[in-house]
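Following the same procedure, backbone shapes were mapped to integers, as reproduced here:
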Amino acid sequence: MTLFALFYMFCAYLLGSISSAILLCHFFGLPDPRKSGSNNPGATNVLRLGGRWVALFVFIFDVLKGLIPVWGGYYFGLTQFELGIVALCACLGHIFPIFFHFRGGKGVATAFGAIAPISWSVACFTFSTWLLIFIVTHYSSLSAVITALVIPFYVWYVKPEFTFPVAIVCCLIIYRHHDNIQRLWRGQENRFSFNRYKK
């Protein structure tokens, strides 16, 4: 592994550490997503706090935080193993951001963005899995957890060399959803409905 690759991984972590949810909520005069709603600085909580458009901007930015470093890594000629670690670093930045006291989001959108350049087919399977479960259950958290469980198998089938770093990312996503998993188990998790958010 070259020094450039290590530096690039660090940059991917720093980019991932930029929390669009916190910054955009501050810009639009909305409550701090770390202290309001579900206390999670992610697109779903911003949807609760500020409506669809702000949440959409957060989602797009979070996806790009994963997509840009990995796509750029292809351009700079990083090895497949190094690209996998770049994807992991971007997600680690989102989940444990150095700029915000290591209190970040759950990493779903950033992980999706990081996986997309690795394999667009895996990205399509990933989104399809999440969407199918969400349509059936209306639980965003359950969709994320189940999707995180099956993504490593998709990756192993299409691009097996990326299985290990992707599996670590998925483990982090599941870990960050531990509160949601407990609420789902107790039947206390709220179902998601777009009809609640008219802004």
About this structure: Residues 52-75 form the longest helix (24 residues). The two ends are 48 Å apart (CA to CA).
